[in-house]
Amino acid sequence: MYLHKVVFCNYSYCTIGENSEVTNGAPRGSFFAYNSRKEAVTIADLTITNLVGESELLVGYAKDSLAIKSAVNGDRSLSFLLPKSGVNEHAFDLVEEESVIEYDGHSYRIKNVTERVVRSTPVKAVTAPHVFFDIVDDFRYDTLTTGFKSIAQVLSFIFNGTDWSFSVIDSFDTVEFENFGNANCLDLFSKVLERYGAEFDLSGNNVIIRNKIGSLIDLQFRYNHNVKTLNRTVDTSNLSTYIKGTGKQREDGSYYVEAEYTSPNASIFGIKHAPPYSNESITHLATLERNLQRAIQDTPEVSIELEFVVLKDAGYTKPKPSLGDVVPTIYEPLKDLDLDLRVMEIEEYPESNKAPKVVLATSKLTLADADFSYQKALLDKIYDANSGRLRYNVYDEAVKRATEALNNSLTELEYPVGMGIIARDPNDPNRFVALRSSGLGITTNGGLTFDEAITVLGVNTSLLTAGQIKTNNIQIIGNDDLFYWDGNYLIAINAADPNKFVRLNSDGLYVAKGALTVERPDGFKTIIDGYSNFNVNVESADPPFRSNNLTQVGRFCATTSTVKEDFNLYSFRHEARYLKLDLAHYVDTNDFGAYGEIIVDLLDAGNTNLFTASFINGIGGEQASLGRVYTVDLGVPTGNAMSIYLRLRSSSDLKNVYLRKRRIWLEG
Questions:
Q1: In terms of domains, do 454 and 544 share one?
Q2: Rounded average pLDDT over 133-140
Q3: Which of 15, 273, 422, 539 falls between 20 and 30 A from 390, CA-CA?
Q4: 455 and 546: one domain?
Q5: Is 236 domain-assigned?
């Protein structure tokens, strides 16, 4: 079969190849290839692009072989058989390892191609995982600081700089991490799902994070031997109802936290011990208790593989299976056991009449009951039941304008074939609202773009006017900063350094790595980038703690001693990093190469000498020394009491060394 021309039909019109005819009534989004006998063959929307960027429409594959597999927090892949033919010989060689296949809005990267010849026809068997798994090639060489992190903070560390963004839909507790990083991004993402008990789905290049994907199905599935199944397993070998665990171990051999957990199902199965659990990163009891409940397998591991038609016959309400859907199940051998099976795996065949295969398996997650009273409370704030009207509140003007625009019939409705409903502005035909099965969109440029839209994927808008916004998570991704607001805290993270952030919650404001500047009403900055802008004075001993070998010579103290003599003692709290000494000093005329030495001995509260710093001075004559500032690095501030001895000596007992202290302080 040789390709003669191609027709692409979109909505109610068709674009066609050269010298071809318009085809009416074609399904939206369909491709038609015409062979030399002018026979039309439907072509799926599938393209192949190799590593050098060559891209072709891929046709002629065995349609009943095209399969898409997906699993909760697991496999997402596409596979098919491709026999070489006249209609695909132009694209056949592009089907190779690392080429990308685009199908139904998703991209898959070919990782395995098996080639064989069937009756002189070359055939390729292709397996292509979703391109999301390419993050295995992204590596995080740095690590997050130790401590409790929100899931948004950890995910931003993983996905920043990749082709993927993320949206956290549900609320998650903070989780304690230690040395998290130094691994590929896929491995780190897998650990995040495990630690937070999260699940994910993909929408375009966005990773959607939820406590649990899927929904509760309104049916009761009866598990017995009369159900037509392809495969069924029930395994109790890992069943346990009691577990004991420990957290991080101290140097003396004890643990920061220890806990135990007994499942309610112990009343059914008795006490069955699970292997002890240990996690060196945990130092808080609540974290350990949560991990123990996740680690235990307190129900039989049930897995049932069946065709989707069986579920539909049982009352499954969706037209096609969805990952994560919960199917309440009667478990015949143990009627007292509430067992929820979930759609954990799906294998579907989108271009054949074969029914999808689904795998139902036990879930360790529980469903949260809907809080209808809370929803009613929200409704009461905007709806007056007595008058039957919406309430006006702080955004009166916005509501009034929107209401008047509708009530005054500023729009007109159109019903174009295949286009849903169009509400067009009579004063500007380029401004209209389009209502279709895919969603609601608003355009100002005749439909070229819909900047304001509501679809199954969410809401896009350039301006939102609201009196209240109630949400679990907000995230704003900038070039330099990442902002997240979830149920734990408001946090702003430096995009280039995940350990530099500002965090706000009821405990207060926490600033990591000196990102805080505080300005007074008069404009003076008291803290700059985390450093105090105050000069912290150092207190001197009074009367001076001074050696007898020092004599007063004008404004200076002098000595010819060749051993260090005490000039004075100074005390302070270690509340800044740097000790600043503004000193003036000199020696007698340097006829014999004599020099003076200024010594700083640092002591802690127990008079233990921490270190000694010295400054050599060979300057001769009082006029040669106008004073200079010396800096001593005290290390990271501890707040502990400290003191210093300021001392001096001469290299020659024939020459005086002179010293005057102008000022000493702490800063930085």
A1: no
A2: 92
A3: 422
A4: no
A5: no
pLDDT band at 194 (very low <50, low <70, confident <90, very high): confident
- 540 and 644 in a single domain? The answer is yes
Confidence band for 410, pLDDT divided at 50, 70 and 90: very low
Q: Which tokens in the block code for residue 432?
A: 């209209």
> Which residues contact residue 116 at a Cβ distance below 8 angstroms, ignoring those fewer than 6 apart?
122, 123, 125
CA–CA dist 633, 527 (Å, integer) = 20
CA distance 647 to 597: 8
| Structural domains of the chain, count | 3
List the alpha helices (DSSP H) in 242-315: 266-269, 285-295, 308-314
- Residue 145 included in any domain: no
Q: Which of residues 460, 493, 510 is at a domain's end?
A: 460
Q: What is the arrangement of strands in the sheet containing 258-262, beginning at the earlier edge strand?
A: 258-262, 242-246, 277-278
Q: Are residues 569 and 660 in the same domain?
A: yes
Amino acid letter, residue 179: N
Residue 480 lies in a domain: no
Question: What's the pLDDT tens digit per position in 60-96?
Answer: 898 889 999 999 988 899 999 999 998 888 899 999 9
Which run of H or of E encompasses 190? helix 185-196
Q: Is 477 part of any domain?
A: no
Report field, pTM of the whole predicted structure over 0.85? no
User: Residue 523 gets which letter from DSSP?
Assistant: S
| Residue 370 dihedral angles phi and psi, to the nearest 5° | -70, 140
Q: What angle do CA 325, 330, 332 make, to 5 degrees?
A: 140
How big, in percent rounded to 5, are the helix, strand and coil portions of the chain? 10, 45, 45
pLDDT tens digits for range 572-610:
888 888 888 888 888 886 555 677 888 888 887 666 666
The residues that bridge with 68 in the sheet, in sequence order, are 78, 348
Residue 555's SS3 state is: coil
| Closest alpha carbon to 460 in 203, 154, 152, 102 | 203
Residue 558 sits in the same domain as residue 451: no
Domain that holds residue 381: 372-460
- The residue from 103, 131, 159 where one domain ends is 131
